[in-house]
Every structure is written in C-alpha cells, then in structure tokens.
Amino acid sequence: MDFVGKRRIWFIISTLLIVLGVGTMIVNGTSRGRIMNFGVDFTGGTLLTLRFQRPVTVHEVREVLAKYDLEQSVIQKTGKNDISIRCEPLDNEVRVKIIEDLKGSLGGGELLEADVIGPVIGRELRTQAIWALIVASIGIIVYVSFRFEFNYAVAAVIALYHDAIITTGIISLLWREVNTPFVAAILTIMGYSINDTIVIFDRIRENIKRLGAAKKNFAEIVNISISQTLTRSINTVLTTMFMVICLLLFGGSTIKDFALVLLIGFLCGTYSSIFVASPLLTLFKRRQKKLS
User: Fold this and answer.
1) Fewer CB under 10 Å: which end of the chain, C or N?
2) How does residue 122 score in pLDDT terms, banded at 50, 70 and 90?
3) Which residues lie closer than 8 Å to 25 by C-beta, 6 or more apart?
4) Alpha carbon separation from 93 to 21, 99, 107 (Å, rounded)
5) Average pLDDT of 175-185?
6) Residue 215: is its pLDDT beyond 60?
7) What is the rounded CA–CA span in Å between residue 270 and residue 124?
8) What percent of the chain has pLDDT over 70?
9) What is the 3-state secondary structure (H, E, C) of 23-64?
10) Do domains 45-117 and 121-291 have the same CATH topology?
11) Structural fold of domain 121-291
12) Are 167 and 62 a contacting pair, CB within 8 Å?
C-alpha cells in the first residue's frame, strides 16, 4: 500500500478531527463557560471522607448525592467501610446536610475528613500538567534526535501532539470529567505512540542501509518499512485495546474515564505512527534534499 502517496487523505482526516475537537472546545467555552469539564482537581472543591457502620457501595452513595445534583462527584472506596467523595465547592450548611443525609440513608457513620481544595491548588495542578507535557516533549525531541535525526524528532513530536489534541477534543465533545488521571492518561498515550513510531523509524533506518544500494527513493523505503511493521502495530494495539476495554466495561466508575481516554488515545497513536509521523518524515526529507 502506498501510505506516503495517499498522505493528503490522512492529513485531511487528521485536520478534520483536530478542527472538530478545537471547535467543540470553543463552543463549550461559549455555551458552558468552560472548554472542558474540569473536575475538582483543577477547579477546586470539597473533599469528604466518611466511615460507615457497614460496607456501602459507590452506587448507594451516588444515589444520595443525586438529590443534590452531585451524582457526577468522584467517589472512591478507601477502606472496608470508608468512602471518599470529591465534589464541587459546597457551602458549610449544604455540606452538613449532605453528611447527615449520608449517615441517615446508609445506616449511620462518622466523618473522618472534610477538606476544601481551593482554586489556587487547581491552578497549580494545571500549570504542573502543562509543564509535564512540555518536559516530556523536550525529552522525546532530544532522545529521537540523538538516536536518529532532528527531522525524525520533529515528525514524532507533531504526531504526539496530534494524538493529544484529538483525544482532548473528543473528551471535550463527550463532556467527560477531566482530572489529574486525564493528564496521566495523556502522558501514557504519548509514551505508547512514541514507542510505535520509533519501531517504524528504526525499520526505516535499517532499510535505508539494506536497500540503499538498490537506489530506492525515501518514500518507497518508508512504504516498505510501514508494511513490514504493520502486523506488529496491529497486534500490539489489539492486545492493548482488549485490556483497556475490559477496564472500561468492568472497572469502577472512578477508572472508566481514564480507560476511555486511553482507548481513544491508543487508537490515535497507532493511526498517527503510520499515517502522520511517517509521511511527515518523508516530506521533511524531501524538503531537506531540495535545500541541499
């Protein structure tokens, strides 16, 4: 298959997905006041930890919180009878009422912790998330430039941000909650994607040495290299997706959003390694050849 020759099709598909994601965030910012559904970690809020007299389920707690329009809160079991709740900022009166309602509805209990996460902490987390992405990108550029060439590094990083932007846009479109696990998922996606891209780039380098004497042009070598690694890429993504889908279907409510981000990101990562990074590298090499 002529992967490089059909690059305009791949680039159009990527552009449409990016435009859809960015457009969704703009619409959300206009209509909802926020480009994404930022959770307590980023916006600040209330953290409650309670110990009940019996084991309670997350579903039971969520049903009680639904009376206060807080069913989207992050609820976690932290012990046999302990439950942790992270929700939007609450007035003291409302917080007391919710605690009493939880105790009364779920058979009694005691409050272990009640903290307020201020907006300053939320801003610090956002800043740290941005710095994490920047540092990861710089590290990838340095590593790939050292192992291959700078052209390879630029193509790889563009593909990574392609994955991050599309994944973020789809999560914004679905209006799923964005917390610190989202940042962890994006960094995981970047690691997965760069690994897949490096495999293809490594095969390109091998084929340049092996097929150079046959006077193959660079685009032909890229096509051959992608074809040789295609089965490996497909098998890797399928086995990975199987585990992520299991997490999405059978994991707890607190991990489902994380699994969804991984599901979208791994698909984007496999796509970009084949249809974005490699064709971009071909274009960069062609331009470099013309300039020289």
Assistant:
1) C
2) low
3) 35, 36, 168, 169, 172
4) 39, 10, 21
5) 84
6) no
7) 32
8) 95
9) HHHHHHHHHCCCCCEECHHHHCEEEEEEEECCCCCHHHHHHH
10) no
11) Multidrug efflux transporter AcrB transmembrane fold (1.20.1640)
12) no
State both tokens at 171.
């999560």
| Through-space distance between the first and last CA atoms of the chain, rounded to whole angstroms | 29
Average pLDDT over residues 210-236: 83
What the block records as the tokens of 213 is 């004497």
Copy the structure tokens of residue 89.
Answer: 């900022």
- 86 three-state secondary structure: strand
> What is the CB neighbour count within 10 angstroms for residue 278?
26
Rounded mean pLDDT, 211-217: 65
- DSSP one-letter code for 274: I
This prediction has a pTM of: 0.80
Mean pLDDT for all residues in the chain: 85
Q: Where are the strands (E) in the chain, listed by range?
A: 37-38, 45-52, 74-77, 82-87, 109-117, 177-178
Fold observed for domain 45-117: Alpha-Beta Plaits (3.30.70)
Q: 10 Å Cβ neighbour count for 223?
A: 20
Domain ranges of the chain: 45-117, 121-291
Sign of torsion over alpha carbons 285, 290, 291, 292: positive
Q: How far apart are CA 13 and CA 19, in angstroms?
A: 10
Residue 173's pLDDT is 92
